[in-house]
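Why do we care about 3D structure at all? Because function follows from shape, and shape follows, mostly, from sequence. That is the central idea of this module. The next example makes it concrete: a single protein chain, its amino acid sequence, and then its structure expressed as C-alpha cells.
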Amino acid sequence: MELTLQNKNTTTINSHFMSNENTHQQRVVSEKSELDEKLEKLNTFGRGEMFLTLPEAEQEPLIRQSNIMDDYSKVLAERIRAF
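And the structure:
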C-alpha cells in the first residue's frame, strides 16, 4: 500500500492580505499553513522506506489521515479565497 501526496492545493497569501485583514482570517491562514506543513511531513514519511515496513493496520490509518488532512486543507483554501 502506498501513501500518495495529495496536497497540491496551496494558496498564496500576499503581505497586504496579512497586514490588513481580520484576526480570524489571519488565524485561518495560519492554520492552513501549519496544516500544510504537517501534511507534507506525513506524505514525505508515507513515500519513505520506513512506511513500507509498517503493518497494513498502521499504514491504512495514516493514509486516511493524509486524505482527511488534504480535504481539510482544501476547505481552508476555499475559506481563504472567499475573504
